[in-house]
Every structure is written in C-alpha cells, then in structure tokens.
Design goal:
Elements (H helix, E strand, L loop, with lengths): L5 E9 L15 E9 L5 H8 L19 E6 L10 H12 L2 H5 L1 E7 L5 H6 L1 H6 L7 H12 L8 E7 L1 H8 L14 E4 L6 H6 L1 H17 L3 E2 L2 H9 L9 H10 L1 E4 L2 E4 L3 H7 L4 H13 L5 E6 L7 H6 L11 E5 L6 H4 L1 H16 L3 H5 L3
Parallel strand pairs: 3-4, 3-5, 5-6, 6-10, 10-11
Antiparallel strand pairs: 1-2, 2-4, 7-9, 8-9
InterPro entries: AB_hydrolase_1, AB_hydrolase_fold, AB_hydrolase_sf
Pfam families: Abhydrolase_6
GO molecular function, one term: monoacylglycerol lipase activity
C-alpha cells in the first residue's frame, strides 16, 4: 500500500438513549469511529506509521476543495468483527482511486464504526454494558447511533454511501428510519452478504435458521479468549477455521485491534456473551427487508455476494433484487473463492466492487442526487 497516503483519526461519539428503555437501566453507549482521508501531501513516514498499526494520530485535516464534492463511505462490520477489519478494503479503495485523478475526485473520505459492544467501543462501554439487565446491543440501537452521526456536523453537506457487511447491512438500512426519503443524505447503498430477509422467509426456513444460529452461539461461547501475546494469537487463529481462509492483513487487524492487553495476556475486546446475543437479534433485519422494498426504486442498492452461498440460501439472496417482491438492484457482484466472511477473505475484490459503485454513482447527474437532498 505504499501508494496510499491515508490519514486516520479516531473519534469517540456519544450515542443516543436506547429507545423504549430507561437511561438508568440502559445508559447511553459510546460509538467509536475512524475517519480515513486521502492526503497526497502526507509523508511516507506517516503512511509507514499507519500501516504498522500506529493509527488515530492524524491531524484534523480538511480535504482539498476538489474532494468536497466527492462521496463519503461509511462502513459497518458484522457480528464478531470490528471497524479495523475493513481497513485492508478501505486502503485498497484509496489505492485504486489514487491511480486516476478522475476516480480520486469521486471519493471524499471514509469512516468505519464499531458496534457499541464490539472492538474499542466494547472496552469503553464495558461498565455500562455490564449494568444492563441482559447482554446485547440491538441493530436498532447501532443504527440509531449511526443515523445520529449522519445528522451531525461531521456529515454536513456530505453525499453518503453506507456499506454494511452481514449484520451491519441491516443496521445501515435501518438508518433510513430517521430521514425522510426525499432528504436523506444516503445517495446509494452497498450491502455485502446482507443477513436481511422477511419474517415470512425466516419462518419458512425456521429449522435451518435456528440450527445456524445455535451453532454460531455455541461456537462463540466455547471459543478461546486468552493468549500469551499477539504473535501466539495470530498463529493460533491462522491454524484454525475461519482464520485459515482470511487474508493475512485482516487477520493481523483482528489481532492488533480486536484484542487488548491484560495482566494475564492478550484477550478479545468483545465479550463472548455480547457477541452471542447478536445472533438472535433478528427483528431489525426483518424491518430492513421492508425498507429495502420501500426505497430501492429511489436509492440505488448494490449487492456484493460471495460465490459460495454458505450462509443464506440462494432464493433468499435472489429475493432482495426480485421484481416479484417489488425490489430491484442497481448492481450485483459475485466474489469468487469466498464465503459469508468475504470481507475478511477477499478485501481487494471487495474494494474493486466498491470502486465500481463509486464510478456508477459519479455518473448520476447532479440533479438526480440533489433532487433528494
């Protein structure tokens, strides 16, 4: 990534009170985000520091004027992941964009978020999460935090493309609940292996869905959580599925940013019960399915699927872009040699697909975008 001069800054964002709950029982949670900006004037030493894991030290730089009309990407991860697992993809997007001055002008900046009980947010919110009567942060609560961010000064005047993987796809679709369709800043969506389906489809596949859910919960609760050091942790995951299928850069990000140092050794930041609680959280994904139907003819939705349908049946996938369900897709990409964890397995191919969407969105006329802003 020596051609990608990317400046990174970390933000801790205040989250809203959980809807339908008292603030005493459900104290507001922090959301941690990283902002990524292309800066051609960055020194190579800054880039080297970043790539070696010294992130979040960039200045509060402003994009140049030719970038302010570009697109802003917002990345949401899936269950059990964290924001930095998007970094190989984000860096590849910047690298590809930097090869063309026209392409570069299409990209303003990128942000990646931690679900409030994952990654750095899990550490910041640990006490507040433990005070809650039960574990878990619903996709509704995460979506509300992200839509609050979209309404903040950080995003004033931005044209946003939310990108969600797996459970994060449902969360980014739910952000539309907080905007009138005619005035939403989201100009397109990219959904990567989304776990979005209707309640009727869930019920029709209930045995298969429950089996996969219970398997995920069992594996999460049985998983090892402590290692002597990061190198031992990296080697341990590299020898075991799914780490055997992951790109080394993503696995390194998982070990470097998804784990914390303790007196006993290196441990996962996300508590096992918090991760496990996310798998039965299906109601939000049902509503996300309705939102897809309602908005897909107005806001372009792009799908990225793994060629191997390891998690969602092909007919459920197809329904998200099937006219018989009242839905359409702007584009559909299939990533070869990958399964449901395609973000972890094929970050460069994901980046290429994202750049194709950037090119497609850039071809939309100003009037087409401004008509909804």
């Amino acid at each position: 990534m020596s051609n990608a001069n990317v400046e990174v800054k970390t933000f801790v964002l205040d989250g809203p009170v959980a809807q339908g709950h008292s603030e005493a029982a459900f104290p507001p949670l922090k959301m941690v985000a990283k902002r990524y900006r292309w800066n051609p004037s960055s020194s190579q030493s800054k880039v080297a520091d970043y790539l070696s894991g010294v992130s979040g030290r960039g200045t509060d730089n402003l994009p140049s004027d030719d970038h302010k009309s570009g697109l802003t990407l917002l990345f949401a991860h899936g269950v059990g992941a964290h924001k930095e697992q998007w970094e190989p993809t984000i860096l590849s997007v910047f690298q590809r964009s930097s090869l063309s001055s026209v392409a570069k002008a299409r990209l303003r900046e990128a942000w990646a978020f931690d679900w409030q009980n994952h990654g750095d947010a899990a550490v910041l919110n640990r006490d507040a999460l433990q005070r809650r009567p039960s574990p878990g942060v619903s996709v509704y609560e995460w979506a509300k935090a992200m839509s609050t961010f979209m309404k903040s000064d950080h995003m004033k005047g931005h044209k946003i493309i939310p990108i969600g993987h797996s459970g994060g796809a449902g969360a980014v679709m739910l952000t539309l609940k907080d905007f009138p369709l005619w005035a939403s800043p989201q100009v397109a969506y990219i959904l990567v292996e989304p776990t979005i389906m209707s309640e009727a489809q869930w019920q029709a596949l209930i045995d298969d869905r429950m089996e996969k859910m219970q398997f995920s919960i069992r594996m999460t609760m049985k998983r090892r959580t402590l290692w002597p050091n990061r190198e031992d942790a990296f080697a341990w995951f590299r020898r075991r599925y799914p780490g055997t299928t992951w790109d080394d850069r993503v696995l390194r990000a998982f070990v470097d940013h998804g784990m914390e140092e303790t007196p006993e050794g290196i441990r996962l930041k996300c508590e096992k019960d918090q991760e496990a609680s996310s798998y039965p959280d299906v109601e939000g994904h049902f509503e996300a399915s309705k939102i897809v139907t309602a908005v897909c003819h107005t806001i372009p939705i792009h799908y990225i699927w793994a060629k191997d349908p390891t998690y969602l049946p092909l007919d459920v996938r197809a329904s998200l872009s099937d006219a018989a369900y009242g839905r359409t897709a702007r584009s559909i990409k299939l990533i070869e040699g990958a399964g449901h964890m395609v973000v972890q397995e094929k970050p460069d191919l994901i980046a290429k697909a994202i750049c194709d969407v950037l090119a497609d969105t850039a071809m939309m006329t100003t009037d087409q975008i401004q008509a909804r802003l």
